[in-house]
């Protein structure tokens, strides 16, 4: 089967691509956004400007051609059609593919989306799952459709997310599960229903990109939710405003939590204990 894999940097592309190669379903080509291309060739010497586990480096090690996918739809379609793909797998690619690209493979074009669709459609599903405090996330292999994240489902699975993980660590867990979905679908060969099953519209939800206000947190949340959201989404310059007793604390790091028990607000230097709906969180905040 002639497979084209379209992805980018990061575990949600790298790990599924590696899973395909290890299962002997090596893609015939890898396509990346021309603006994000991190691999160059000088004569017979390969120069990899990303780390050794980037999708470009892995493609080179596996002898897989790399397409710098044009941002012009007609050119991109021509690039894809040149490989005569039977199937296209997409994972963590930031651009919407044109109808000409989607119609190129004989079987279809399929995307890995890090949620159990139809819930959490949109560009940042992991952020919203952490914000909602879910203890299990999921990943779905679905047919790419004209409307983003609404195509028929080929397969999906849930993944337990440990407390205190970073977004990157959660990505790795979901990417590993996504790689297994790809391999399972291919291993079933003719038994795989590549048409898929329609998504139930009554369970659908969509969230866009988060804004600054979406980082506001509340002691009305359970301690576990507050702790895990901060651990997953914290980063340079990010603060989590939290109002306690009419005072706003700009939280920057969650140190620990207790799921049950009572506590009172306690401030010591740049650390504080936050009593929550259930349990409490110990965190650091910016001192003014």
Description:
The structure is a single chain. The protein is α/β, with parallel strands linked by helices. It has two domains: 3-203, Rossmann fold, CATH 3.40.50; 212-285, no CATH class. 25% of the residues lie in helices and 27% in strands. The protein has seven helices and 14 strands. The chain has helices at 11-22, 55-61, 73-81, 99-102, 125-132, 167-187, 223-233, and strands spanning 3-6, 29-33, 39-42, 45-48, 66-69, 87-91, 108-113, 136-143, 153-160, 240-244, 247-258, 266-268, 271-275, 280-285. The strands form three sheets. A seven-stranded mixed beta sheet has the order 5-2-1-6-7-8-9, with helices on both faces. Strands 10-11-14-13-12 form a five-stranded antiparallel beta sheet. A two-stranded antiparallel sheet has the order 3-4. α1 packs parallel to α6 and α5 runs antiparallel to α7. The protein is elongated, with a radius of gyration of 22 Å. 39% of the residues are buried. The model is unreliable at 37-51 (pLDDT under 50).
Q: Regions with pLDDT < 50 over 5+ consecutive residues?
A: 37-51
Report helical residue fraction.
25-40%
With strands numbered from the N-terminus, the spatial order across the biggest sheet is 5-2-1-6-7-8-9
Quote the distance from N terminus to C terminus. Answer: 60 Å
Share in β-strands: 25-35%
Order of helices and strands: EHEEEHEHEHEHEEHHEEEEE
CATH class of the largest domain: Alpha Beta
What's the number of extended β-strand segments?
Answer: 14
CATH topology of the largest domain: Rossmann fold
Find the structural class using helix and strand composition. Answer: alpha/beta
Give the overall form: elongated
Q: Can you give the mean pLDDT? A: 90
How is the main sheet built?
7 strands, mixed
Using only C-alpha atoms, the radius of gyration works out to 22 Å
| Overall CATH architecture of the largest domain | 3-Layer(aba) Sandwich
Annotated CATH homologous superfamily of the largest domain = Formyl transferase, N-terminal domain
Q: List the total number of helices.
A: 7
Instruction: Return the domain count.
Output: 2
């Amino acid at each position: 089967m002639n497979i084209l894999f379209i992805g980018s940097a990061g575990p949600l592309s790298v790990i599924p691509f590696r899973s395909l190669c290890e299962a002997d379903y090596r893609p015939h080509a890898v396509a990346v956004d021309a603006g994000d291309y991190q691999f160059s060739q000088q004569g017979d010497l390969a120069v990899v400007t990303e780390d050794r586990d980037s999708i470009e480096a892995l493609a080179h090690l596996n002898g897989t051609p790399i397409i710098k996918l044009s941002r012009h739809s007609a050119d991109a379609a021509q690039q894809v059609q040149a490989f005569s793909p039977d199937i296209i797998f997409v994972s963590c690619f930031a651009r919407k593919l044109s109808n000409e690209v989607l119609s190129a493979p004989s079987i279809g074009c399929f995307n890995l989306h890090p949620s159990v669709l139809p819930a959490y459609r949109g560009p940042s599903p992991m952020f919203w799952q952490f914000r909602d405090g879910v203890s299990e996330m999921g990943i779905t292999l679905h047919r790419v459709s004209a409307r983003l994240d609404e195509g028929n489902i080929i397969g999906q699975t849930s993944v337990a997310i440990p407390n205190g993980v970073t977004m990157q660590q959660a990505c790795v867990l979901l990417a590993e599960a996504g790689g297994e979905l790809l391999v399972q679908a291919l291993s079933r060969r003719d038994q795989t229903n590549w048409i898929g099953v329609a998504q139930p519209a009554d369970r659908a939800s969509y969230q866009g990109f988060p804004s600054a206000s979406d980082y506001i947190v509340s002691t009305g949340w359970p301690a576990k939710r507050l702790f895990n959201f901060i651990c997953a989404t914290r980063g340079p310059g990010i603060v989590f405003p939290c109002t306690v007793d009419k005072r706003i604390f700009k939280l920057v790091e969650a140190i620990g939590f207790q799921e049950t028990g009572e506590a009172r607000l306690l401030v010591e230097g740049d650390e504080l204990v936050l009593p929550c709906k259930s349990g409490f969180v110990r965190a650091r905040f910016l001192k003014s």
